[in-house]
Amino acid sequence: MTMTHSVGNAPKPLTGKRVLAYILAFFGVIFAANGVFLYYALGTFPGVAVESSYKAGQAYNEDIAAAKAQAALGWDVATHVTRATDGTAEVTVTALDKNGRAISGLAFSANLQRPATETLDKVVALTEAGAGSYVGNVSDLEAGNWTLTLEGNSGSERVFRSQNRVYLAK
Q1: Claim to verify: residue 85 and residue 153 sit in the same structural domain
Q2: Which residue from 60, 88, 92, 112 puts its CA 20 to 30 A from 146's CA?
Q3: pTM of the full predicted structure?
Q4: Alpha-carbon gap, residue 8 to 65, rounded angstroms
Q5: What is the per-residue pLDDT across 18-62, written as a single tens digit (0 to 9) for each?
Q6: Range of 23's domain?
């Protein structure tokens, strides 16, 4: 019985050039993946939550006092956002005082913000549709998570503010 060896299937020798090529290819893939992640991270989140942290810190005590004054009013303010499939949405606010009576004569505005970017933010001015009922419409509102900041003013004084996370379905 005779055995033959095939020379065509012999493994190639591991040379210094081949090892260098493997190392460069490995790190090239790592750098390319990091570059893609960095591009998308910087493109979707600008990294700025407030323009001036110092000014936000100075207003902190005023915000606490305003929140205490708002809590003392005992108002029941309900907000509802309804989004249609074409991207239009209606923001409805119902405002009642602590005795259940409708609150009229306020100027409400709703600010819809994306949590990660400011490019899609929408501001909606609400008009009084009836006693204690305020309505506003907005177009081109995408589905997904939004932060809804509702502010009610009486003249030039802010008397109500709330901030809630809402999810709008497709």
Answers
A1: yes
A2: 60
A3: 0.66
A4: 84
A5: 999 999 999 999 999 999 999 888 777 666 666 777 887 888 888
A6: 15-47
